[in-house]
Amino acid sequence: MAFRDNVAGAYRVVQDEICAALAQADGKGVFEEELWEREGGGGGRTRVMQLGDVIEKGGVNFSAVHGVLPEAVKKAFKVDSAHFFATGVSIVMHPGNPFVPIIHMNIRYFELDGGACWFGGGIDLTPHYVIDTDARYFHHLLKETCDAFDLSFYPKFKANADDYFYIRHREETRGVGGIFYDRLKPDNTGLSLDHLLDFSVAVGNTFVPAYTELIDRNRDREFSERELEWQYLRRSRYAEFNLVYDAGTKFGLETNGRIESILMSLPPLAKWSYNPQVVPGSEEFNTLTKLKKGVDWV
Amino acid sequence: MAFRDNVAGAYRVVQDEICAALAQADGKGVFEEELWEREGGGGGRTRVMQLGDVIEKGGVNFSAVHGVLPEAVKKAFKVDSAHFFATGVSIVMHPGNPFVPIIHMNIRYFELDGGACWFGGGIDLTPHYVIDTDARYFHHLLKETCDAFDLSFYPKFKANADDYFYIRHREETRGVGGIFYDRLKPDNTGLSLDHLLDFSVAVGNTFVPAYTELIDRNRDREFSERELEWQYLRRSRYAEFNLVYDAGTKFGLETNGRIESILMSLPPLAKWSYNPQVVPGSEEFNTLTKLKKGVDWV
Q1: What's the confidence (pLDDT) of residue B255?
Q2: Which residues of A are less than 8 Å from B239 in CB distance?
Q3: Which are the contacts of A24, defined by CB distance < 8 A and separation ≥ 6?
Q4: Which of A65, B60, B200, B214 would give a disulfide with A42, using CB separation of 3.0 to 4.6 Å?
């Protein structure tokens, strides 16, 4: 079996396990599955939960596609290959309770004819209200996962996430970050492809313990109209990031990807009020002071 | 007085008159004004109405800025000038009643050192529900305004609007279009700068009769949760267009413009549900069939 089939197979299992764990954690919501095929080759399994007990809207998508490399991608990747293979799992969860954070995960593998191939991905957390103990718990888990492979991974990938998940026009990070990495190969990591696959799957497997714990901690916290309004505002910032900056989203829109799967990441309900103000010293204010690069959460 | 001061002066009056007429039409909402100054030179008057009787959120912004041309703009305009002057009026209105359409207008004048200068702008209509008689009324008014200056304007500028206000990844137009033009100069129109200013102001003056009529026709129409849901969905498409494609928005974000004035155009409340379906033959379905380029509304 080709290595890429190993990767796709492992990613399918990651999708299955995450969906099972999330459905159990939610207790009410179910994932609706859509199988789709890509005209140029390959396809995917989109799984979406809406109006669950915890998850207001969330998706866990698997895809494995191949074919002729679109011109836009050749340009973006600065490569000359004719064919590509790409597989990955992508997750975004928008919870209903403003104290449960939004979470995003992606693990992916890319291959070009000629033999070039690499892994990319990451997990990051976007709390509507930053809760220090939750952010620390989240980053500790990620560090543990990274440290098992290379002690240099967490600090590098944490800094990458700070840089990547940044809403430049707001001068704020999307949330409390996490890890983000791309183009991991044997020659720039010293790890074999098999080990890199292990790392990628380990990142995938960190999702469930990370998120279910944060769900458990916060799902029953009471909230009022005020916290909901703030949640809708933070969601609008999330939508801004994804539509203006996110490379995966832009890439998908430019290459005629499956629109509903790509934009599954957008929030179920978002508000843009004009020039909203926060009261100094409030929890909302406190959150804004923490949406900065370079916060050390471990 | 320099010509550009004439333009800025005329645009200020356009802003004043539109605000007065809109406040009167709304009957309840008031425009809150913020004066701002641009670090590099010039400034503006941002006027926003929120939670009016008709207007849920809307802004009428005037600005006149000048200074050193940002590198990004030099590139975009393919010019080598060091200094620029720009003035304009920008409007977006998001009404509360789903039967009242969203409207957008922009008139602008741009000048570079060395003497290059031009006018740009347009008005376009984004009904949540396309009402043929309203769309025809709107386009007739625009045609009248255009025809008074040049019979070639309306057909050209109408086609421009179809092309420009297009959500490529959805394969639908943002609404029923209108007119859109750019780089109007004496040498490509045969009109003097003074006449082009007259045209620009005439476009600005078309806003009030166009929109107040559509408000009057629809403001008291009853609606239910269903129409509201559809409105929130259409607003999410509006947000997608503005954040992904709109040149003015991108330009503003890239050149560190005043964020709240730039993103004033975003809807007060928007919904992204996953893969929404419309019932064939319904009013929502009917609207989708009309969000196409090339519909002849006159």
Answers
A1: 74
A2: 239, 243, 270, 272
A3: none
A4: A65
Average pLDDT of every residue of chain A: 95
Q: What is the ipTM of this complex?
A: 0.92
- In this complex, the residue of A34, A57, A240 whose CB is nearest that of residue B243 is A240
Residues 6+ apart with CB under 8 A from A159: A294
Domains of chain B: 3-290 (3.40.1500.10)
CA distance A128 to A146: 26
A104 annotated active-site: yes
Min Cα distance A261 → chain B (Å) is 8
Q: What is the pLDDT of residue A254?
A: 81
Contact A48 B275 (CB under 8 A): yes
pLDDT per position as a tens digit, A36-70: 998 888 999 999 999 999 999 999 999 999 998 87
Nearest-Cα distance to chain A for B56, in Å, is 10
Residue segments in chain A with a per-residue pLDDT below the cut of 50: none
- Nearest residue in chain B measured CA to CA from A264: B274
**Given this model, what pLDDT does residue A220 score?**
98
